[in-house]
Every structure is written in C-alpha cells, then in structure tokens.
C-alpha cells in the first residue's frame, strides 16, 4: 500500500491536499535536547513518516549523514558539542552526500541566526526559531516541499551532469517564478562554469552583480572564473570582496588561501586561515591547514595553536591521527629550543606524549616515533640525562617488540648524540 501525506490544513478547515509517496523516505533528526527530539519525531510521524533516525550529537550525525542519503534533515543549530548544525550542512553539501533534493531545515534558539542566514554560503532550505507551534512547522515544511518540487527537474539534470538542461530549466523557472530569480541565476552560473565556459560564466556573474552588487555568491563565482582564466591577482581581490560582503562565506577563505599559496604568499594564506577559524572555530580541516602553513613559515607559536585546536577537535573521533601529535610535539620542541615558557610547554608536551602513546599503543611505529620526538625535546633543552633514560626505555620496548626497531645507522647516530659511544 502506498504511503501518502496530506499537507496544508488551516484553522478554518480549508484543506489544500498534496499526496506524496513517502514509503521509502528517510528522515534524520539531529537534536541534543531529549524533549525536542521527541517533539520533532512526533511532528514527522504525524505527517506519515516512519523511517526516522535520531542523533543527539553533531559528531555521530556527521558520520551517519555521510554514509547514507536522507530525504529530510532536521538539525538544531547549537548542538553543544564540537560540531554544530551549520557544519553538518556544510559537510553534507561539500561532500555531496546529500543532493539538492534533500530538505534541510535548521532549528535554532539563536535569533542572531536570522541576521546571517541570507549571506551564508551553505544555506538551509528553511529555518525555524524556537519555540514554534506545530502549525508553523507544517506550513514551513509544505513551503519547502513545493519549492523542491519546482527545482526537481534541475536536480535530476545535475545528477546526470546535463548542465545545458540545467541552464534551460533555470531560465524557464525564473520566467514563471520571479521570486526564485536568485536561485535560478546561481544555477545558470553553475551550469556555465561546469561546462568550462569560464568567460561566459564570468560575464553572467558580472551582469548579475549589476542588478544586485551585494550577492556574495556572484562575486565568488567571478573569483572561480578568474582562477580558471589564470588571473590570480584579480581572483584574490574578488575573494577579499566576497568576504567583506559575507564573513560567513567559508569557501572564499579557503580559495583565497589557495590563491595566495599559488602566488607564494604564505603569510597571506596564513592570515586567511586565521580569519576563517574566527568565523568557523570548530573546523578541524582548517585548523590542520593553518598548522601546516605555519610550520612551513616556521611560525611555531601559530602552528602550536593550530595543532592544539586540531587535536582537541578530533580527539576520540575517526579523524584523530598519530601524525597530528608528532607535528604538535615538534612545534613544542622548537618553541622550547628558542627559550619560550619551558615549564608550561614541557607540561603540554608530557600530556600530549602520554595521549599519543595511549592512542598509538598498538602501533610499534607510533611508539618509536614518540620516543624519537621525546629525545629530541630533551636534547633541545640540554636535558641529556633524561634523554638517555628515554632511550633506555625505548630500547627495552624495541627488544620486546612493542616499538619498531631502528636501522644500525639510525641507532649509531642516536647513541652518538647521547654520548653513549
């Protein structure tokens, strides 16, 4: 039997009916407050949905949303952990785990969200500010469904990489629904760019800006085209303008860092990463990039801050890696070697070293690398006795098979530095 839902019942019992097959529709509810989870599930159940997954944290939701397709995602904005609803939306759109047919509704108690949602790079299909009555939810949900229906042919063409059809359909929708012009113009630009028509795409975005000079996505589109056309300096200026228009346009910072790196301007790329982390402080990918750029610049203080943030954000997740600890410990070692606050840094070093050894205890290479960096740190601080103790402990673990062995040449060099030859 086909499952259907009926939408749009008002208080006067005037009913607008629309039957939608939902027998295979998947729903994901992401909410850290138990009562709100139950309410949202009840609302979706009342509409006829039964295939409903519920996640209380952003981290578990990210994993689930990247593994399977959902037709509807209802996410709280502030989830109380290291990942918020906006990051979930960004991850799902960036990785294409959820295509444009997915309904994504943001739910928030933060009224400030209303002032920024229109300039966000990754915008939800709609949002609701808590508290809200069921009737408001149903009206908003029906409105989004209708809009998704209008763009259904474009989403199908996008999946098939039929970009010419996308452009044609966008123009037809724009003629019929002038209120959707901005979305349609964005789709036309996307279509031209995807076909490699960078000059045409640039012209399209420039014409769009003539009508509305504050469309951040159009300025970003021009920057993308400038990069493809090899005019990197012009792209940098456009990206900086995009960020001035919308400090929440996160990809503009990433692309700006790319452009600056291609110009061998690592300091400017570093500034771009510092700036984006002020807007999106819980992005571990950007924390990693900042740390790596800073290490190349030998800016050990900024690199240490970057790796500290990265380790904090990835701890006990699938993104935690022993390499992050190695590089973090290297930064601390460099900082101690140039006379920074050695007591505080040594404490950070010790705590991170313990975590590395616990995390990598089943990995003999990780154990050996942990001792290698520990000895380097002791030698950098002229603590020869401690370095020798560390080597003796390491050697015992090598003999027991818990740490990977050194080559004869490596062992000879190490013993020479320790004065054991």
The general outline is globular
Structural category is: mainly alpha
Global mean pLDDT:
89
The N- and C-terminal alpha carbons lie at a distance of 83 Å
Strand order of the largest sheet: 2-1-3-4-5
Number of strand segments: 5
The secondary-structure element order is EHEHEHEHEHHHHHHHHHHHHHHHH
User: Radius of gyration over alpha carbons?
Assistant: 27 Å
> Which ranges are low-confidence, i.e. pLDDT below 50, for 5 or more consecutive residues?
1-19
Largest sheet: 5 strands, parallel
Total number of helical segments?
A: 20
Portion of residues within helices: 55-70%
Strand content: 5-15%
Layout of helices and strands, plus pairs?
Layout: E1 27-30, H1 34-46, E2 52-55, H2 58-67, E3 72-76, H3 85-94, E4 103-108, H4 113-116, E5 126-129, H5 134-150, H6 152-159, H7 163-176, H8 181-194, H9 198-211, H10 216-228, H11 232-245, H12 250-262, H13 266-279, H14 284-296, H15 300-314, H16 322-337, H17 342-359, H18 364-380, H19 384-400, H20 408-417
Parallel strand pairs: 1-2, 1-3, 3-4, 4-5
Helix pairs in contact: 2-3, 6-7, 7-8, 8-9, 8-10, 9-10, 10-11, 11-12, 12-13, 13-14, 14-15, 15-16, 16-17, 16-18, 18-19
């Amino acid at each position: 039997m086909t499952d259907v839902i009926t939408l749009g019942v008002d208080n006067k019992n005037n009913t607008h009916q629309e039957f939608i097959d939902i027998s295979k529709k998947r729903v994901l509810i992401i909410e850290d407050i138990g009562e709100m989870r139950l309410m949202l599930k009840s609302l979706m159940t009342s509409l006829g949905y039964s295939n409903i997954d519920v996640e209380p944290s952003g981290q578990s939701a990210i994993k689930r949303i990247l593994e399977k397709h959902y037709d509807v995602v209802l996410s709280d904005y502030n989830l109380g952990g290291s990942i918020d609803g906006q990051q979930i939306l960004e991850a799902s759109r960036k990785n294409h785990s959820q295509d444009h047919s997915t309904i994504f509704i943001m739910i928030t108690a933060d009224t400030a969200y209303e002032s920024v949602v229109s300039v966000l790079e990754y915008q939800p299909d709609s949002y609701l500010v808590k508290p809200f009555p069921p009737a408001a939810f149903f009206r908003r949900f029906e409105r989004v469904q209708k809009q998704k229906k209008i763009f259904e042919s474009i989403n199908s063409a996008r999946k098939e990489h039929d970009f010419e059809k996308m452009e044609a359909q966008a123009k037809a929708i724009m003629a019929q629904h002038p209120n959707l012009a901005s979305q349609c113009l964005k789709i036309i630009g996307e279509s031209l760019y995807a076909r490699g028509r960078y000059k045409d795409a640039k012209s399209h975005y420039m014409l769009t800006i003539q009508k509305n000079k504050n469309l951040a996505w159009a300025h970003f589109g021009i920057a993308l085209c400038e990069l493809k056309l090899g005019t990197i300096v012009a792209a940098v200026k456009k990206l900086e303008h995009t960020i001035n228009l919308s400090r929440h346009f996160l990809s503009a910072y990433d692309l700006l860092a790319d452009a600056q790196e291609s110009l061998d301007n690592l300091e400017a790329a570093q500034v771009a990463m510092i700036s984006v982390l002020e807007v999106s402080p819980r992005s571990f990918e950007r924390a990693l990039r900042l740390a790596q750029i800073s290490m190349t610049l030998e800016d050990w203080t900024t690199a240490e801050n970057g790796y500290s943030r990265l380790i904090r954000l990835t701890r006990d997740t699938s993104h935690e890696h022993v390499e992050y600890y190695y590089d973090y410990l290297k930064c601390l070692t460099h900082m101690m070697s140039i006379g920074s606050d050695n007591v505080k840094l040594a404490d950070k070093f010790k705590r991170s070293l313990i975590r590395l050894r616990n995390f990598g205890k089943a990995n003999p290479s990780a154990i050996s690398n942990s001792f290698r960096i520990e000895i380097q740190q002791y030698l950098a601080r002229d603590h020869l006795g401690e370095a020798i103790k560390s080597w003796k402990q390491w050697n015992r673990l090598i003999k027991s098979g818990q740490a990977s062995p050194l080559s004869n040449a490596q062992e000879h060099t190490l013993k020479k530095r320790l004065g054991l030859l």
